[in-house]
Amino acid sequence: MSSHKGADPIHVALTFDDGFWAPAYATMRSICLATHRRRDLVFHLCHRPLSPEHRADLMEIEVEFGASLRFYDLTQTPKFRELMGRVPYHKRLTDIVYARFVLESFLPADVRRIIYLDCDMMMMAPIEGLWEADLGGKPAAAVPEPWGKLIGSGRDIAEKSDLLDPADPYFNAGLLVLDLERWRELDVFGKLQALIADGSVDRLSYSQNVINLILKDKWQPLDTLWNVIDPHRAHVSLNPYNLHYTGDTRPWTLTAHLRGVGYARIYRHMMTNALFYKFWRYRMKKTVGKYLPFIGASRRVRGSSAPRPATPPAA
């Protein structure tokens, strides 16, 4: 597999919990397989504590492609720790999505531009197309969100319209190209703190709404093919640059290809079959573990109500 070394590194940030290590691996591997500049890639992995086994799986990206991995335990970064417990925590997203608000606080000073990606993505085009994007002097570039009016303004496209006007452009925050110097100048963390204090973060609910409010009129639109939301089979004809699996059926489920998820078969091979089924077993074990105490208790109750055998008479 050929690899070309460019003049400058390409910095990419991912945020994830330990239980999402396999999709993070698949996202990184898709990036590596879509470019010849594999050795230029520097992945900044922002996470909660990782198990040694999962960390070893992630390190295979370095072995296979020669890319660089840097690990950041978010529970040890002051600004993220300050946010924990103060921002909404959703079961599917958790509060780790707020790490993108404070990337500049713990990344090395020589990282001036970075591509932030959600870990439910699969890159299909060379990532240098994003890296070289013109930000127009703004702190961020992103792809417009097709569901923006509903996500941003809420019920009847009116519930939160005093904060996010439905006529304003709205972007999907799962893919961001950030100029970290302008990000610092904007004082994103300070603005987030103010929105927490006045209750706006709780009202907006989702971190994507919050970042849209902070970056109002301060982001550059990218080609929609860089962030194709909830891809299905019909999207294949678009030849998308990057796929974003936001739907109810994720590509790492066993039946994804039967339920019309776009590029589902490719995704399984992108994750590698070994890790795909390892991730499936991991999830099944967690699911079964939730019910085992209940099942065990039920069995004990049933056992205690069963009649005891009569004591045989003494000989």
Spatial separation of the terminal alpha carbons = 83 Å
Name the helix and strand elements from N-terminus to C-terminus, one letter apiece. Answer: EHEHEHEEHEHEHHHHEEEHH
**Strand percentage:** 15-25%
Mean pLDDT over all positions? 91
Can you tell me the overall shape?
globular
- Total strands: 10
Q: How many alpha or pi helices?
A: 11
| Backbone structural class | alpha/beta
Q: Spatial order of the strands in the main sheet?
A: 3-2-1-4-7-6-8
Uncertain stretches of 5 or more adjacent residues: 299-315
- Please give the share of residues in helix: 25-40%
Describe the largest sheet: 7 strands, mixed
Alpha carbon gyration radius:
23 Å
Offer a quick outline of the entry.
By secondary structure, the protein is α/β, with parallel strands linked by helices. It has 11 helices and 10 strands.
